[in-house]
Design a protein that fits this description.
It is a single chain. With about 425 residues, this protein is α/β, with parallel strands linked by helices. It has two domains: about 130 residues, Alpha-Beta Complex (Aspartate Aminotransferase, domain 1); about 260 residues, Aspartate Aminotransferase, domain 2. The protein is about 40% helix and about 10% strand. The protein has 14 helices and 13 strands. The protein has a seven-stranded mixed β-sheet, with helices on both faces. Strands 9-10-13-12 form a four-stranded antiparallel β-sheet. A hairpin with a 3-residue loop joins strand 12 and strand 13. The mean pLDDT is about 95.
Length: about 425
């Protein structure tokens, strides 16, 4: 697509954007003059849906007015509260309704999934992840290996990009599984790699993992809400995600899990149990026997945190209205425009994220030429100019234009500020 680096061009794109009205449904952080910041940090914390305040206030009012009776008589009764989120999560993950559940937080859910699906036996003891994985994932996996009495130094297999490369192609993952498959018990891979913004073909990875005899799970923290997903058809064994990034559910929001139906029907996979996973009809009889709720709901441990789940109701409603295919189309257009503008800043800024539009998520990662100290200075200058993105040591800046609330004008403003910051730090 041919672009122009002008404000008139960016505004023309915004005027024809069918999703532009959604920006007005979010609270926009502002500077000391009351002007909106150039907020391109939805990959770390999404903005607040304005409707979230009303939903949380309603829960507080029901708590104040009903006390314990709110569990059954609140306007959204608290006992089955997670069910308010099921349809939206199933839609965004391409799952069946009984394959998803909102619960806990991402790393807690990852531990629960690893406890169920990582079953080392004989020579098959290793876990395959990407080198440079999100630190919380790596901590969880290393501690699970140690829990089984295994040494992470020898049983954690981290697949790194080839020398001089920033990303790992699917064929490299397939080759690794062909070579080491008999030693690998489980593969955990991101839908979108948090540092580089690379998006992966999850179906292809799942097929390769299963062909090698491995279980496969996906961390969708940087995928859900901006990438079309089809977890049921892709045959993932499990997936986990958080809701405070692209799902805009607020800091510390409730996370979620996908468990493929083949692991919840018939003889379900062994997993850790808690009272909220007990079938609702007999849960409060408090008998010692565990009778699992159907599907992924049977994997719940505790009752849902109402006040951190309520904002997700507001956000998921917008996703159903906007439709993920339209959001993805706008995301591709936004990152394409941003790529064009960054390419004009070479050699001072270089794209790390793959140039293939289909091989990246709602994020571009940029490496600033020079040492890491210069990159940090550039990032600091951007902050002084009202630009919000983020920095990952030693030398990568991550920028996420979110299609629900970011404009093409935001992308242009960012690039203009980046050009100025680069000149100031040359």
């Amino acid at each position: 697509m041919s672009h122009e680096p002008t404000l008139d061009y960016a505004r023309a794109l915004d005027e024809t954007d069918p999703l532009s009205a959604y920006r007005q449904r979010f609270a926009l952080p502002r500077d000391e003059h009351g002007e909106p910041l150039v907020y391109l940090c939805g990959h770390s914390l999404g903005l607040m849906p304005l409707a979230a305040r009303k939903l949380v206030s309603e829960e507080l009012d029901d708590w104040a007015g009903l006390g314990v009776f709110g569990h059954e008589h609140a306007r959204r009764p608290w006992i089955p509260y997670h069910e308010n989120l099921t349809a939206g999560l199933a839609y965004l993950t391409g799952a069946r309704m009984d394959e998803v559940v909102a619960m806990n937080s991402l790393t807690v859910n990852l531990h629960l999934m690893l406890a169920a699906f990582y079953r080392p036996a004989g020579s098959r003891t290793k876990i395959l992840i990407e080198a440079g994985a999100f630190s919380s994932d790596r901590h969880a996996i290393a501690s699970q290996l140690a829990w089984h009495g295994l040494d992470p130094a020898s049983t954690l297999l981290e697949l790194a990009p080839a020398a001089g490369e920033d990303t790992v192609a699917e064929q490299v993952i397939e080759a690794c599984l062909e070579r080491h498959g008999p030693q690998i018990a489980l593969v955990l891979w991101p839908g979108v790699q948090f540092r580089t913004g690379q998006a992966f073909d999850l179906s292809r990875i799942a097929r390769a993992a299963h062909k090698a005899g491995c279980c496969v799970g996906f961390d969708l923290a940087h995928s859900i809400g901006n990438m079309p997903l089809a977890l049921h058809d892709e045959q993932a064994d499990f997936a986990v995600w958080c809701s405070y990034k692209f799902l805009n559910a607020g800091p510390g929001a409730i996370g979620g899990c996908f468990i493929h139906e083949r692991h919840t029907q018939g003889a379900p996979a062994a997993h850790f149990k808690g009272w909220w996973g007990h079938e609702a009809a007999t849960r409060f009889r408090m008998t010692p026997e565990f009778r699992a709720a159907a599907g992924a709901a049977g994997w719940q441990i505790s009752n849902p945190p109402i006040l951190s789940a309520a904002p997700l109701i507001a956000s998921l409603a917008m996703f159903r209205e906007a439709r993920i295919e339209r959001l993805r189309a706008k995301s591709v257009a936004l990152t394409g425009f941003l790529e064009y503008l960054i390419e004009r800043l070479r050699p001072d800024a270089r794209l790390v994220t793959p140039p293939d539009l289909e091989a990246r998520g709602c994020q571009l990662s940029v490496r600033i030429t020079g040492d890491g100290a210069r990159g940090q200075r550039v990032f600091d200058r951007l902050g002084e100019r009202g630009v919000v993105c983020d920095w990952r040591d030693p030398d990568i800046m991550r920028i996420a234009p979110v299609p629900l609330y970011n404009r093409f004008e935001d992308v242009l403003r960012f690039a203009e500020h980046l050009a100025e910051a680069l000149r100031e730090t040359a």
